[in-house]
Amino acid sequence: MTTEFNKQLIKALCGSVVLTLAACSSPQKAPASADVAVSNSAVANAVSAGAADLAPMELMAAREKMMRANQALAAKDYALARELSAQAEVDAKLAQSKSTSAKANAAADALNADLRLLRVEVERANRPQ
């Protein structure tokens, strides 16, 4: 019965060693360089979409979080760097969406103004003289 107990003990120890090694190799401890790079790209896309003029608050929040994410990355606080870069990416996408929406609304307003002018011209042309 002692050998059976020893076998179970060895299996339990091996299992705990495997779990410990898996926890140590967690992606939270790996550098967050890729996450920060993706967020930097999202901020750049927002800037190119005109967010600096059309969604400045959201862009400023994204840039501030990117700065803090880069600082956390330099300090090897990878979990914080990941969290901040994810938040920065969301802020940048919001800024990009707001600026795209503002441009679309401006284009729709211009189109509506052109249509009103066209209706006036058509009515004027169809009036009896």
From TrEMBL:
Residues 1-30 form the signal peptide. The keyword Signal applies. It comes from the Bacteria. InterPro entries: DUF4398. Residues 36-110 form the DUF4398 domain. PROSITE patterns: PROKAR_LIPOPROTEIN (PS51257). Keywords: Signal. The keyword Signal applies. This is DUF4398 domain-containing protein. It comes from Massilia glaciei. The lineage of its organism: Bacteria, Pseudomonadati, Pseudomonadota, Betaproteobacteria, Burkholderiales.
